Structure formats: C-alpha cells, structure tokens
Amino acid sequence: MTATKPEMRPTGFAHRLARWIDWIVVALILAVLVVVSVTVTGFLTEYNISNLLLQSSYIGILAIGEAFVLITGGIDLSSPAIMAMGAVVGAGYIVAHPNQLVLGILIMVVIGVACGIVNGLLVAYVKLVPFIATLATSTLLGGLALWITHSASIAGLPNSFLNLAGSLGSIPIPVIVFAVVIGLSYILLAKTVLGRHIFYIGVNARAARVASISVERTQVMAYAISGLSAGIAAVVLTAILGTATAAMGQGTIQLAIISAAVIGGVSIYGGVGSIPGVVLGTLLLTLIGNVMSLNNVSYFTTYMVKGAVIVVAVSLDRFRRLK
Amino acid sequence: MSGKALLELRHISKHFAGSQALSDVSIELNQGEVLGLVGANGAGKSTLMNVLGGVITKDAGSILIDGHEISLTSPSAADRAGIAFVHQEPALFSMLTVAENMFVTDYPGKWGWIDRARMVEACARHLHTVDSQLDPNTLARDIGIGDSQLIEIARALSQQARIVLFDEPTSSLTVHEKERLFEIIRSLKNSGTGVIYISHFLDEVLDICDRVVVLRNGKVVAKSPVSEMSMARLVEEMLGRQLESTRQSGRRAGDVVLQVESLSRGNVLRNVSFTLHENEVVGLWGLLGSGRSELFRALTGLDPIDRGHIRMRIGGELRPITPGNFLSRAGYVTENRRDDGLFAKMSLRPNVTAASLWNVIRSRLRFIDQAGERHVAEEVMQSLAIKASGPEALAETLSGGNQQKVILGKWLQRQPTVILMDEPTRGVDVGAKAEIHRLIGELADQGTSILIATSEIEELMSLSDRVLVISRGHIVTDITRDRVEQESLMRFAMGEA
C-alpha cells in the first residue's frame, strides 16, 4: 500500500515562487503603497486617494465580471464595448427623459445582461471559441454605439444622475457600489451552487458533464454575469465622466481588466480564482497607473509599463499552474 | 540459434506509478525471423513497443543490435537504429499527399526547399517494392488503412530498417489486404529483416510467425517455436490458470433493475440487449475496440443513440428512461479518471459532492452548506478508507487508487440503483485494487447492481456473478460465472463463436 507520494512535490525556484505568488502580490501592493506615500508628493491627498478609488471602482467591477468568465475557462473581450453600449443608450434616454432616472439606469444594466447572454449563447450553443465570439460582439457593439451617437458624446445629463459620482459622507458613491458588487460576487462565486458549477466546468468540463452539470447553462450564466458587471460599470463610469461616449469602450480598458483579474490570481486557463484576489489585482494595477501620472511619466512609458505588467501577470499564471 | 541475434532485449524492466509494466523481459530476434508477441490487454506489449520505439525509457536492462548495446532515448534514435513500426491505424497527415507523408521526417531537397519531382519519384519506387500501385500525389485522407500501412512499410524499407514491428496490423484490414500484408511480411523475412508481430488474433500468429513469446503481467511466461504451440496452450499461457480461484459470493440476484433493448449506434453498437438485477455484479468482457466503453457512453447519454430502449426500476417498477436521464439514478466511473472523472485541481471535498450538490444546499438561494459538505467528505473518506490529509487535500496529490475511491464516493452520494464502471482498477496499485474489489462486493451485497468492464481476466472472474461478452458492438454471450471458461471467453471476444 503506497501512501501519498512526497516525491511528487515539485521543487525548484519556479515552484517555490508558485507557492508564494498570492502573498507576493499582497506584499507588492503594500510595498508600493508605503514607498509612494512617503516619496511621492500629492499621493496621500484626499483628492488623489478618492481619484484612485474612483478609477479602481469601474475597472474592478469589470474585472470581477471578467473573472467569472475566465474561471469557466473562457474569456470575454466585449465587456468595455458592452459598457459603452449600455452607457450611450441609457444616457441618451436619461437626457431625453430627465425624470425617469431609474428607468435609464435600468436600461444600462439590462443592455449589459442581454449582451452577456448573447455572448453566452454563442459560446455555449453555437460553440464559437470564446475569444472569437466576444471579439466579434465587441466589434459589432462598438460600431453600433458609434452609429447611434454619430461619434458624439452624450452630454447634458441631469444633476440627479451626476450626483451618483458624488459622496455619501466622505465615501464616493462609486466606491460604495464597488463594495456592494465585491460582497455580492464573493458570495455568488464562493458560496452558491452556480459559483461551484463555474469552478467545476473550468477545472474539468468533461467530468462536469458526466456528473450531469449543465456546462452550457453555466457558461451562459457566467457571460451574463460579465454583461451585468459591464452594465453596472456603465452607470458608474458615465456618472464619473459626466458624459457617455462610444469611445468609453476603446483603449486599454480590456487589457486592464484581464490583467487585473490575472494579477489577482484568476487563471486564464480556467478553474482558479477568487474575488478578493481580483480586488487586490485591480488596486495594484490602478496604483501603478496613478503613481506614474503623479510623477508625470510620459504617456508612452505608461503604456510600456502596463504592457510589461501584463507579461509578468500571465507568466505568473504559468508559474501558478506548476503549484 | 547460431551467431549473434539481430536484436536482443536483456532483462528489461519498467515501472509505472502503482504497477510493474515490464519485469525482467528478455527476448531475442534473429535475422529473417518473424517473432510473434502475444498477451492479454495490459500484459505489457505496448510498453515493450514504446521502449523499442524510444517513446518511453526503460528502468533497467539493455538493448543490443548485432551484439552492440544501443540507447533508445527518442523516436529518432530508434529510427537510426533501424527499428521501424507499422501501426494498427497509421496516423497520417490527412491533408498531405502520400509522398509527403512518406518523407515527412526527411524531405529530399536542399536548403529547406523540397525537391517535389524527386520525392514523388522516390515514393513511387518505394511503393513499388511493396507491390503498391498507389499514386504518390493522392491525399492521405482518401486512402484506406491497408494502403496507409503500406506507406509505413515502404517508408521503413526506404530507411533500410532491419527490424520492423507490426502492432495489430490486421484488425482493420479486409481479407484481401490481409493476404497482401502476409505476402509482404514473408518477403521481408526472406530478405533478412527481423519482424516482430503483435496480435490478438492467435490463428494469424500461428500462421505467419516462426516463434512466439507470451507476455503476462509484464513477464515473459512462454517462448517457443510455433510448431510446438497450439491455440489452446497460447490462450492458457496468456490468461494464466486462475480459474480455480473464483470464490462463491453467496449473493442471490434480485429483481431486474435495468433492462436494455436493441441499443444501437452506427456500427459501434449493434442491437445490444441485456438485463441487470439487484445484488449483482455483471462483468463486461471484450477486447479493446469491442464497444465496451461505447456502450457505457451510449447508456449515459454522452454519445447519441440511433435506437433502443432503456428501462430502469424506479419506485418498484420498471419504467422507460432516456439516456439523458440515466445518470440521475446511476453512477458512472469512467475509464480515464483524469479526463472525465476527477476535478484534479480541486480538493477532495467538492470532488465528492460534484454529482449531488443538492444534498448540501442550505437555503432556497442555493447556498452550499460548507460544513455539511465537509462532513460528507469526511464520511466518504472514512467509509471508503481514502488516504488523504483531509477533505481539503488537492485531488491531484492523491494516489491513483485513492483518486478512484474519490470518484466512486462521488457517485455513491446519489445512492444509485446501477453503477457502471469502466476499468475501475487501471493504473492502481495492488493494495488499492483489492480494496476497490472489496468495496464493489459490499455495494452489490447491499443491493446495488454493478456493470463492470474490465480487460483483466482475474478481475472479471473474481468479481462477476455473470459475464457479458461483447465483440464488434454486439453482446455475443451472457453466461453465469461458473460456466465461464477462459478459452471460450477469448474465442467469443475474438468473434469466433
């Protein structure tokens, strides 16, 4: 009778690194925090901190939705486009009907969920590769948003809506929304049957199918959750910016949310990840951006650093798989 | 035997996790000799082939060609040593031509440019040596298995291979193609090539080979010229004399719990009908590719069926059930636990509850009761004697036997009427195997009906109350254990009934 085999435990630098990776991220955040708060002037101001948290809020909400999809073993490249789509339609409605604020917000969220469900159906039932399916819907929605707005930004939102970017006490409302999203998504992923199913299909979809878990339904739910998060982010970002444009979905947001999730321990190979991790990853990423802009680091250097961070994050994911 | 042997294997051993695949195997092959290599599934034939092909490395022993020791550390090393393979179903690049496939490791030409004219001409010449009129420009996807094997043989000849191994070459061939293949083997022999011929079909072995070596459980159990061998003795050597060891279970089969009628799927399953009873272990015996795993996949709705009816005992009476719903009242321990059984990157706890999460749901919001789940996992660990540090141990860190118990534990949570098991003790060490056998016996004693597919005759004989033999997708016989004879099993399985 052989007992468990200790020689199976891999050794070597990469493996040792793998075991400590999550703590390394936490330590990095703390180290960066300490260093910048001492050395960088203007970091520890109330204005800058709230700015940092505001930025984290919509990136984090998107990254949390992305995490659900990544854990199933898929990828969602359309969340910024979905966010922009929800934002321009909802904002357009609110500008036209300033007294139907709640309905306008609801439109943003519902558009998010609906687009997510379409992604899910394409992946689960039409069996498209997630990368292609969501790249296609992203392009389609981007074009649609431009067409609807004629490339113009939608301004003239009522103060009642813009107040959503204000503060409750001393805490910005987007940060409160972020906190609520964190709490609910944590419970959903870690405590419920749906969350468990998302992990099962990410770890071994074939075994899940044999155990009569509906892989397809779970996939649709994951993409719907990602869409929902894009809808919520649409509300938050529109309030922060004061306008809605089709350009909201462009630029490096997509890479930012995937790298936030991956830095936070979500595997792009599926099956692994946690909400607290995603939150930490988001904070680290926005922190880096924030510090660079405080130091007047040039636009292209910022890009280079962010690109390097992504390379490091994905490499870390490889190491984690060795664990 | 005169002079040096062409190929000599001395004391080859190979150990895999939990099992000794080859132990102290010594074989020699002479020039111009056809050596038959036979053995039941899992006897070690494939391992030996892979050692010779440089695909896996041996733990101990040496390999000599013309009396000189060689080292086979990679497939290209085997190539250089003059060892070539002809496979059961050669894997060709379907979108490349015959000529491109033949020279895939060694295109004629210079500086990376391929000399097509020379390649086509050389291909035609080599094909001619095996009497093939195949057009070198045909796409590989358009040719049959027989012709694909000819390409492999021609390639071997073009590389001046001195040793050619045939692995089950005839199982997909037509009668005519088989005759042609035998002709080629005889001419290889006459030109001094050494041939190793691996086959389930003992009549062919007795027909084409000069000598035969029998492997059982990784050991050479018989070596003899075919003139001194009979079919009966070959079967006896292959299977061992384990029949006496069958014990009486004392179980009495109860009511019918599963009735399968005319289940068909293409030509993979043909009119499969059988019944299972309460308190019964039924063995499903068949060679690789006979339709064993396919039957399980069809029953459980993983593969679509063309027609057929399944009835299961639900609430005291037999009721029709669709394959899609089959697993709601049954368990299925799959053949390859890493592929579709285990959630390797998860801990033992969610592995055990994966098929029965509804048992540990706490509220209407479908929250998982984590404490309850841990309790279930602890119970399973205890009742199945799973050796692990605790419910949070990562499944992939467990030994094969313990992983298999985790999977069994997962299905037991459903309190299944029927459990299907496909090779449940493959790659599991001897101790864990005995424990799994004991668990299977206990489950049957408690009333569960178990259908177990195995290619190990000892396992079949020690576990089953009844045996179904499947061959070419058809149940050819259904016999109680006391009437099973090993020779008849083999004959049935080879479709000679």
Features:
heterodimer, A: 323 residues, mainly alpha, ABC transporter involved in vitamin B12 uptake, BtuC, two-stranded antiparallel ribbon, 1% strand, B: 497 residues, alpha/beta, Rossmann fold, 6-stranded mixed β-sheet, 17 helices
Give the topology, please.
The complex is a heterodimer of chains A (323) and B (497).
Chain A: H1 13-39, H2 46-71, H3 79-96, H4 101-124, H5 130-149, H6 159-162, E1 167-168, E2 171-172, H7 173-191, H8 193-210, H9 215-241, H10 253-263, H11 275-294, H12 299-322
Antiparallel strand pairs in A: 1-2
Helix pairs in contact in A: 1-11, 1-12, 2-7, 2-8, 2-9, 2-10, 2-11, 3-4, 3-5, 3-9, 4-5, 4-9, 7-8, 8-9, 10-11, 10-12
Chain B: E1 7-16, E2 19-29, E3 34-38, H1 45-52, E4 60-65, E5 68-70, H2 75-80, E6 83-86, H3 98-102, E7 109-110, E8 113-114, H4 116-129, H5 145-158, E9 163-167, H6 175-190, E10 194-198, H7 202-208, E11 211-216, E12 219-225, H8 231-239, E13 256-265, E14 269-277, E15 280-285, H9 292-299, E16 307-314, E17 317-320, H10 323-326, E18 330-333, H11 337-340, H12 348-353, H13 370-383, H14 400-412, E19 418-422, H15 430-445, E20 449-453, H16 457-463, E21 466-471, E22 474-480, H17 486-493
Parallel strand pairs in B: 3-10, 3-11, 6-9, 9-10, 15-20, 15-21, 18-19, 19-20
Antiparallel strand pairs in B: 1-2, 1-4, 4-5, 7-8, 11-12, 13-14, 13-16, 16-17, 21-22
Helix pairs in contact in B: 4-5
